[in-house]
Design a protein that fits this description.
Elements lengths: L1 H12 L6 H14 L7 H23 L39 H18 L9 E6 L5 H15 L7 E5 H4 L6 H13 L3 E5 L7 H14 L11 E6 L1 H9 L2 H6 E7 L4 H15 L2
Parallel strand pairs: 1-4, 1-5, 2-3, 3-4
Helix pairs in contact: 4-5, 7-8
């Protein structure tokens, strides 16, 4: 890969040793940022390398080390991503109400896979599929999508934590070609982050809904969006979503992560209100 070769030459010229897993991690971050508009390979690589060198120097100054080990750049020298959660990214799940969705355990399993790939020097591309969120309105699907985006960004899977929220009806046009335009525009805004489509089963009905779905599935195979560069979450009532999936083989093959949000119990509602009230006290 050209970026790996350039990075190796830069490290050699600067007199530092860059282990393979660190090279892969840097290039993988750049690969994610390619999904963002106005990305430039050369400039981004130089900026990334400057940031790593600065972090590396700061670590050495803080530790007071010397000798050959000082030339070894480590994964800890990679700066924190803009907007990423400080500390343990999984702490973002602490205030998520548990309705039996299993999203927390899902994300913890993903975190373990991320760390394993980083240790082995493997890229994070194609690590996660697209999501189906099922459940009634008000069960936390949209909030969870925002948590998901923040986590995936902190893990280095996504270039940004931005969530673009829309609905199946919003993406369905009123004449031939309009649905394609609507989907293209919303995917462009979600690029590098998460697209959340509520009431997504509207995309399975009528010629214009089908047109929107075909455009969406087609865009997921484009270089700017494929291999996990942008994650799509389709959400809606459980039965309607499963009927939509059963009617579209292509949809089933691309949306492989399933999370169901159960109805909140009276106790959970009470606890949430109490927590919100406590948080609002100065």
């Amino acid at each position: 890969d050209e970026l790996l070769a350039i990075l190796t030459r830069k490290a050699r010229a600067d007199g530092v040793h860059l282990p393979w897993q660190v090279k892969v991690a840097i290039v993988d971050r750049l690969a994610k940022r390619r999904a963002l508009p106005h990305f430039g390979n050369a400039g981004a690589l130089m900026t990334a390398w400057s940031d790593v060198k600065r972090q590396h120097s700061a670590r050495l100054l803080a530790g007071g080390g010397d000798g050959a080990l000082d030339r070894n750049v480590s994964l800890v020298d990679l700066p924190q991503r803009d907007g990423a959660a400080a500390g343990d990214p999984l702490s973002l799940l602490d205030d998520l109400v548990d309705t039996g969705s299993g999203l927390g355990s899902h994300m913890r399993e993903l975190a373990a896979r991320v760390r394993l790939r980083q240790r082995e020097g493997r890229p994070l591309s194609d690590l996660i599929g697209h999501f189906i969120f099922t459940g009634a309105p008000g069960t936390g699907k949209t909030v969870s999508a925002r948590k998901l985006a923040a986590l995936l960004h902190s893990f280095g899977v996504l270039a940004t934590d931005h969530v673009e929220v829309t609905s199946g009806n919003d993406l369905t046009g009123e004449y031939v070609g309009q649905s394609k335009t609507k989907v293209g525009e919303v995917m462009s805004r979600a690029r590098g982050g998460v697209l959340f489509v509520d009431e997504a089963y509207a995309l399975g009905g009528g010629p214009y809904g089908v047109e929107a779905m075909e455009k969406l599935l087609g865009m997921l195979t484009e270089p700017e969006y494929m291999d996990g560069k942008t994650v799509v979450v389709l959400a809606g009532y459980k039965d309607e979503m499963h009927r939509m999936l059963d009617a579209n083989v292509g949809l089933k093959s691309r949306f492989t992560e399933f999370v169901h949000f159960g109805d909140w119990s009276p106790k959970q509602c009470t606890e949430l209100v109490q927590k919100a009230a406590a948080d609002s006290v100065p």
